[in-house]
Design a protein that fits this description.
Blueprint: E1 2-7, H1 11-27, E2 32-37, H2 40-49, E3 55-59, H3 67-77, E4 84-89, H4 95-100, E5 105-108, H5 113-126, E6 133-138, E7 141-146, E8 150-156, E9 159-164, E10 168-172, H6 175-178, E11 186-190, E12 193-196, E13 200-203, E14 207-210, E15 215-217, H7 223-239
Parallel strand pairs: 1-2, 1-3, 3-4, 4-5
Antiparallel strand pairs: 6-7, 8-9, 8-12, 9-10, 11-12, 13-14, 14-15
Length: about 240
């Protein structure tokens, strides 16, 4: 799943880019979630409050928070060097300032939709390695935990705890929202648990024992889907 943001104070430009992306991703069966913002401050607040993005199409000249200022906050304040940023502007006078925030590309207005798609594909290739990690934020800090180190996810009181062999990381979130981005070896077994099948030591009728010794219950409504998921994962690994 590729998370994309579009931010421009001109709504018509946002809709133009969004339509180009929707048509291309649907035609090519690319999993993408697109969020549109008309104000730089709104986008920055969303990133701090909810989650970051893999790719941002960002207008430079906006009234409340310019694209350059927003990019500097992403790079310096949030310490995020992985988000790909494509600047969109009607002028090219910002060359030196753009260099500081390491953008993926610059698209001049009027926008060529082929350049929008070209940058999408470039971002997909460059984000390939990130798909092997679970990315989340705690406060203003961004964490990336390799999936093969994660034993399971636990949800309590609107918080998700990421459990590894050596650490626990807790942040605000919902299990339902992270499921689409997880690799095949992860399976939901309970309303409160998503487990890494590769880190299960013992399978029981109503529970699993993880490699750290934790015994996690399998919810009644998840038993059948758990069996099917486990079988599908084993078949896919045999084909690799």
């Amino acid at each position: 799943m590729l998370n994309i943001a579009i931010c421009d104070d001109v709504r018509a430009i946002c809709h133009f880019i969004e339509n180009a992306l929707i048509q291309y991703t649907q035609a090519n069966k690319i999993r993408a979630e697109i969020e549109v913002f008309y104000d730089g401050t709104d986008l920055y607040d969303f990133i701090c409050r909810e989650h970051g993005f893999d790719l941002i199409y960002l207008d430079i000249e906006m009234p409340s928070l310019s694209g350059i200022e927003l990019s500097r906050n992403i790079r310096s304040v949030l310490c995020d060097s992985d988000t790909e940023i494509v600047f969109v502007s009607g002028t090219t006078q910002y060359d030196r300032q753009l260099f500081d925030v390491q953008p993926l590309h610059f698209i001049a207005k009027p926008i060529d939709p082929q350049l929008v798609i070209k940058d999408l594909e470039l971002a997909r290739r460059r984000c390939g390695d990130l798909e092997k990690t679970h990315i989340f934020q705690i406060g203003r800090d961004t964490f990336r935990i390799p999936y093969n180190q994660i034993l399971y996810f636990e949800s309590r009181n609107r918080k998700i705890t990421v459990v590894t062999e050596t650490n626990l990381f807790t942040y605000y979130g919902q299990l339902q929202k992270i499921i689409p981005s997880l690799p095949i070896q992860f399976c939901r077994i309970h309303k409160s648990y998503i487990i890494n099948l590769r880190r299960v030591m013992e399978f029981h009728a109503a529970a699993v024992t993880m490699s750290d010794g934790a015994v996690l219950s399998i919810g009644e409504t998840y038993k059948q889907s758990f069996k099917e998921h486990k079988k599908r994962q084993l078949l896919e690994e045999e084909d690799v």
